[in-house]
Amino acid sequence: MDFLMSSSYDAVLRLGIQALEANVVPDFVLRRATRALLKRRLNSLYKSTGEEQLQALMSFVQSLKEMPIAVNTQSANSQHYEVPTEFYQLVLGKRLKYSSAYFPNTSSSLDEAEEAMMALYSERSQLQDGQEVLDLGCGWGSLSIYLAEHYPNSKITSVSNSETQRAFITEECGKRGLSNVTVITCDINTFNIDKTFDRILSIEMFEHMKNYQKLLRNISSWLKPDGLLFIHIFAHRSAPYHFEDEGEEDWMSRTFFTGGTMGSASLLLYFQDDVSILNQWYVNGKHYAQTSEEWLKKLDRELKTIRPIFAKAYGEADVNKWIANWRTFFIAVAELFGYNNGEEWGVSHYLFKKK
């Protein structure tokens, strides 16, 4: 009976995904379905006893220590970072920050919220002008360019896995007359640098990582003796999990986060062999939910311009499918981080020092 119920459930999901990709699912239906899937996810995450909950966490920690630093790095590129930059210029804020912004109040604009979050990074990482800074996983250079402008005597080294991003940042720095940014393209599994830094900042890169023990050991070797590491990572409040494609309801894992990790608020505290925690903060998920709602609004406003971009990226026949995919992605992100008033999933900030 359980097998039959599971098979029927998967069949319904398959039909739902087909309807989604045909772009015929109303938003209110999609949102309700997303919340139902999130409820199922939570039921699987929360164990019946505290002992079982802790054991699940410790098993997850141990499993990460047996994995490579990152897996499926090329998938992250193809799913996100090699999509034409013109698309992100249309849907993201002015800084092209492809991660959670911080809304001082609900009426703040997306551009204001991007600036507010980066000001928060500067404060929490104790940045000072004249420092050597490594931006690890720099995206389209939102933080690197912000730091280069606000700390003109600092030297910023930006690391990305995407040649598209490197080219964009280099061009943008040239337009702005910024000569204190150097961009490196590499796979984090093999990245090394013969240089040490006063500050290392990593914004939503650790979600693509697995073996935090090895990664933090490497990062520690790039820190000066009094250097600090600041990490921004989205996380569930207590239970980490992998993004794995194990069935029809794992659409997000398959389409946008192959090889990814959903951390928990405490997860990185179990990897202090080479770094020591100095401070930790938790940003309520409603900030990320509002960020993604703003992305969705901009996508809908710019559909006519986005269509030819997607035709070039995905092929003319799949334009509607990928419009639906990106709309669904932004809706899913908004629903995930807005769930339970933003108290289930949110953003963890960590400040570590070198051991």
From TrEMBL:
Family matches, as Gene3D superfamilies: Vaccinia Virus protein VP39 (3.40.50.150)
Coiled coil: none
TM region(s), chain numbering: none
Pfam families: CMAS (PF02353)
Source superkingdom: Eukaryota
InterPro entries named among the record's database cross-references: SAM-dependent_MTases_sf
Family, per entry: Belongs to the CFA/CMAS family.
This protein's name: Coclaurine N-methyltransferase
Organism encoding this protein: Sphagnum troendelagicum
